[in-house]
Amino acid sequence: MSLRKVGEQDLELMLSWRNNPVVRASMFSQDVIHLNQHREWFRRESAKQDSAWFLFIDANKNPAGVVYFTNMDRIANHVFWGFYAAPGATPGTGTKMGIEALDYIFDTEGFHKVNAEVLETNERSYALHKKLGFRIEGTFNDHYLGRDGYESVTRFALMASEWSDLRKGSFFRKNTLIDLG
Ligand SMILES: CC(C)(COP(=O)(O)OP(=O)(O)OC[C@H]1O[C@@H](n2cnc3c(N)ncnc32)[C@H](O)[C@@H]1OP(=O)(O)O)[C@@H](O)C(=O)NCCC(=O)NCCS
């Protein structure tokens, strides 16, 4: 399992996942995206110093998700993250991708804190953040206006020290990860 930077050659695959209704419903921008818009977006995003986009490559060497970091604040040392698994990915993909990404951002990049914003209807992401050790920092009530009306947004955070402690525990211990499949 590994992460690799998204390149031009990945854009069509990535867009096919991003436009999946389940993935779209979890995002703050829920309209269908066209390939030309996506390419433009990627050009702008690639020029930024404060964001990084990765494909998650699973144990069979197949791309199985996208995980990204934005608003990388190198002064306060905090960052936002987001992710989506390939529609139809094997259960457990979200967990494995999250572990890989958190190891990267804390151990390789040296950030102090990772933040996430999750729509209240997104039970899977909510559960995944809790599983990965994130704690709720607060709720923004009626903060997002979607097609079905207002939704609240939960702000989660995880500190580097908390992740390091979790990685020493039985489930997340580094050398046992292979057992997760
Ligand atoms: C969120 C997402 C990446 C999770 O991927 P996944 O492969 O299903 O994740 P996992 O199988 O590792 O499951 C992680 C946890 O989510 C929870 N979960 C999984 N399926 C669930 C379901 N149908 N309902 C509620 N919770 C669920 C469980 O707590 C699970 O942990 P457990 O198996 O130990 O109980 C994936 O659902 C996805 O891409 N969703 C759309 C995009 C998205 O929501 N991105 C996050 C935006 S904040």
Describe this structure as you would to a colleague.
The chain is of the alpha+beta class. It has one domain: Gcn5-related N-acetyltransferase (GNAT) (Aminopeptidase, 3-Layer(aba) Sandwich), CATH 3.40.630.30. It is built from six helices and seven strands. A seven-stranded mixed sheet has the order 1-2-3-4-5-7-6, sandwiched between helices. A hairpin with a 5-residue loop joins strand 2 and strand 3. It is globular and about 45 Å long. The structure holds coenzyme A. The site of coenzyme A has 22 residues, from helix 2, strand 4, helix 4, strand 5 and helix 5.
Question: What's a concise summary of this model?
Answer:
By secondary structure, the chain is α+β, with helices and mostly antiparallel strands. It has 6 helices and 7 strands, in the order βαααβββαβαββα. The protein has a single domain, classed as Gcn5-related N-acetyltransferase (GNAT) (Aminopeptidase).
